Recover the amino acids of this structure.
């Protein structure tokens, strides 16, 4: 059993959870302390965003978390896509269910990862979750406060596309985010939504760690040659226009799709694939940027 750090045992006098605000009740203050007690045990917190769906955001989140765990780090992966949780499928965990007690839920542990998703709570994976904003905010808060994450080096949060309830809730609840990684595809219709994601982050004072252009060209499964089948460079141009880092371009590789459908993390199970080297270079930039942001904060 892990020792639970609480505000009563914390020596950080600068922590905002040490004092009750004038405008909050005792219950609200207790909830805020409980949330902070969880977050202060997590060194780095990164959200993965996209302006549109279908750009491979969850693929990036899963492989980022897996790569960090492979490096021997303590990693949590939180899937807050309420209406379309895909992380359990991508890791082959569809049949897993959560365990817990009266005071805590225990994340599913898999290959060095601690994983949490609403998908683990659905009795039938075909069930539609029809919730309004307050209910989403409530369950996301519960994922942070009631799940026993323990001490983590990184928490990677996969949020649904757009700038709606889920990403807003995460940014409001985790006020010490290291930053956001924004995923897009190269064509203009997807890349222009990067602007909205960057503006969203700036409004909420969340650093943008960088933009990833996914599905940038097609990688031949036989020879490895990359052929541009979509207009290229949209992500790079928007990143330049918005003055945020461009992290790199990941080609459209059939092995990535096959790995996700098979419930296997691509970066681990296809370690000899050239696309893995591209992903790893991008991930190294993300981790370095998150450390820099933390030092400068």
């Amino acid at each position: 059993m892990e020792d639970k750090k609480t505000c009563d045992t914390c020596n950080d006098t600068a922590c905002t959870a040490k004092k009750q605000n004038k405008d909050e009740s005792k219950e609200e203050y207790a909830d805020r302390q409980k949330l902070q007690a969880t977050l202060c045990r997590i060194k780095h917190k990164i959200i993965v965003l996209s302006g549109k769906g279908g750009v491979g955001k969850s693929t990036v989140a899963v492989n980022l978390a897996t790569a960090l765990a492979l490096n021997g780090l303590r990693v949590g992966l939180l899937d807050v896509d309420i209406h379309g949780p895909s992380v359990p499928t991508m890791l082959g965990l569809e049949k897993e269910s959560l365990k817990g007690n009266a005071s805590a839920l225990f994340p599913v542990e898999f290959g060095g990862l601690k994983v949490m998703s609403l998908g683990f709570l659905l009795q039938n994976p075909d069930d539609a979750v029809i919730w309004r904003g307050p209910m989403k905010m409530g369950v996301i808060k519960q994922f942070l406060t009631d799940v026993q994450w323990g001490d983590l080096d990184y928490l990677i949060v996969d949020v649904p596309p757009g700038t709606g309830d889920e990403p807003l809730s995460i940014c409001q609840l985790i006020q010490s985010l290291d930053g956001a990684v924004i995923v897009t595809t190269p064509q203009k219709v997807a890349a222009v939504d990067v602007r909205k994601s960057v503006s969203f982050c700036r409004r909420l004072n969340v650093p943008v760690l960088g933009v990833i252009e996914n599905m940038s060209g097609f990688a031949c499964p036989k020879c490895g040659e990359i052929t541009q089948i979509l207009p290229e460079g949209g992500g790079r141009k928007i990143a330049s226009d918005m003055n945020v880092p461009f992290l790199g371009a990941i080609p459209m590789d059939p092995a990535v799709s096959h790995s996700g459908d098979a419930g296997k993390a691509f970066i681990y199970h296809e370690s000899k694939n050239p696309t893995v080297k591209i992903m790893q270079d991008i991930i190294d930039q993300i981790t370095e940027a998150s450390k820099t942001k933390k030092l400068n904060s």
Remarks:
- Residues 116 and 237 are 35 Å apart (CA to CA).
